[in-house]
Design a protein that fits this description.
three-stranded antiparallel sheet; 6 helices; single chain; mainly alpha
């Protein structure tokens, strides 16, 4: 069964945020071939060639451009499916550190994403990313109202 674009976006965005949070505040390079599983490889194959199909590279570029344009991260997008000097912005960092009001166990969204990435639950990851983007939208709403 084919994976939807939204599912691919959620999976890739979770990996990008995990990578950036792990390195924060140091910039790092995001490389599509390391963050996306090539279609011809199983996710657990370490010796698979790190070459992506062109549509996967374009999907990576579209995703990181959207994340940069939405203010979650900064970095220089390279046409070879990379982002150099990538780092979370204040908005991205605050969203990942946000404590969801609806949860009583007290884990931040970032901690829950890390747990989910280890467990491999795509449904939970989709829910967390939707929550994260909603929190980000709430953070910028007061700024937009001032303008």
């Amino acid at each position: 069964m084919s994976v939807s674009n939204l599912d691919k976006f959620n999976d890739l965005t979770g990996k990008v945020f995990d990578e950036l949070y792990t390195h924060f505040p140091m910039p790092c390079d995001l490389i599509a071939a390391k963050l996306m599983t090539p279609a011809s490889c199983a996710a657990d194959e370490d010796d698979c060639l790190l070459e992506l199909a062109d549509h996967d590279a374009q999907f990576f570029l579209a995703t990181v451009r959207w994340l940069i344009g939405s203010g979650f991260l900064s970095g220089e997008v390279i046409p070879t499916a990379q982002v150099t000097g990538a780092v979370l912005t204040v908005k991205g960092f605050e969203v990942l550190k946000a404590m969801p009001h609806c949860l009583t166990h007290g884990h931040s969204i970032r901690e829950r994403i890390a747990e989910t990435m280890k467990e491999g639950s795509k449904e939970t990851l989709k829910s967390l990313l939707a929550e994260e983007i909603a929190v980000g939208a709430k953070l910028i709403t007061p700024v937009i109202e001032i303008l």
